[in-house]
Design a protein that fits this description.
Blueprint: H1 2-54, H2 61-84, H3 86-116, H4 118-141, H5 148-165, H6 167-175, H7 179-202, H8 205-228, H9 234-257, H10 267-285, H11 296-300, H12 314-345, H13 350-366, H14 371-385, H15 393-417, H16 421-429, H17 434-461, H18 466-470, H19 491-498, H20 504-541
Length: 542
Amino acid sequence: MAVDGDTDRTLSVDSRGRLWGLHATLFEAGLFGATLFGIVSLCILFGYIAFDAFQPLTASIRWYLLIAGTLILPTAAGTLYARRQPAVRAANAKAFGVVGGALVAALCTYIVVDALSPYDVALVLLFGGYLPAVFTLLVRRTNRTTQLGPTAILSVGGGLAIAHGGYDLLRPIVGTAAQWIAYFAIVTLPVAFGLWIVGRRRWTRQTARRAVLAVIVSVLLLVVLALGLGIDPSFWVVLLSVGAIPVAVVIGEIVVLDPAGRLGAAGPFVLIGCLSVFLAVERQLGLEGPDGYLTTTLLLESWHGLDASSAGVYPQIVGSIVIVGVMGVLAFPVGIGAALYLEEYAQRSGWRGRVATLLEVNISNLAGVPSVVYGLLGLALFRNALGFPTGIVLSAAGTLGLLILPIVVVSAQEALRSVPDSLREAAVGMGASRWQTLRTVVLPEALPGMLTGTILALARAIGETAPLVIIAVATTKYSPPDGILSSATVLPLQIFAARSNVDPAFRHGIVPAAAVVLLVLLLLMNTTAIVVRNRFDRRSQQ
């Protein structure tokens, strides 16, 4: 009988185990099916949008054969070769990343600085950037490292206060210089300083000095050449400083230090060459490509509400970039500072501890508040309380900044909590102050998690329309903003307005094309944040 009881129990355990195994299999299959359904649904949705935006059926067969022979097949062959060679693959990915990132950074820098006025940006950078840098160097030379953090914060705040208070006196003086000089101060000098910092770590001091001198001399030679040809050198100064110089440095390092991956460094240039050949042959043969709406007219012209073929969203693209950029400048320092206070400085007992707990609970709840409520908050704060004009960049950026602030704070808190206390204790045991521990130990470890929150915040803010409608941001603008106190609009609002146009070409052509542009902007910002996050993540693990 005992044997029969043991057998029954064994059979019961086996059947229960098989039942749980079946449950786990069904659960795994359900998760896989849900994921697959979501991916397929998104692909179908994006396929519809791309089909309406590009109109692929309007192109001729000869055009597809040409693009396959001159562009797709060569780049596919190069990609297959690179995949089989680890060194070539790594160099190829690095080269594509730096070329694409440098070009995007150069274009965005020029667009934003041109919209905000290069003289204003140069004035702010002079007192809010260069002046604090001088104070920081003086503090370092006196070996007073414990005063580095407060000195940097006070010098930045004081410099910005001087720039704001003396704007009426200083702006005419700065405005007497040529425009390319302002761009030289805004982009070339910071790039040269960054190259000096990188060169000191990777090369010798003499090589770093030569690299900085080469940057400044090459930019000045470009300015002389452009002025001799009667061309405004401003854009070319930005393109050379932000676009070409980082590419030259990275590609040069690959060629010199990575012999096995040298061939991969040619990847982006092969792609550019194939694209040039395709465009030249297409123009020579007069082939008909897709008659879509995602054209240079859409990207570089202003809005036209009557003719879809003449409608452009350049002011909306610039407005989106400027508003999101100003939003980041306003929200991220405040959000990260609040997270640092709540996690590292706030007391956990007494009435201060109860206040800190109350703040944390409210911040967590604010992360789920509908965006319309933030629009009402922005209307009450910026329009009614502060008296700002309706629809200006500062009001829109401030409202979106309030919207993403809880996300930034919560994600930064989680990133700070993930840093082990043993690292803090080790730094304190070695004699580091609280500020030195935060700056050299805690923040580098928590920065990847903070950047993850940045990605989520940007993804939410760039597509918002309801808060901007509440604060009376214009749905259509015919010129880009010329400062943070000027009116502007964003791409989602223009898509929202174009959707109600009576012309089907707007609803089924311009709207999908503008949506593709918005998705590209979102992907570019997210890609930049992901690359920076992964870079800091690798540094923290080394």
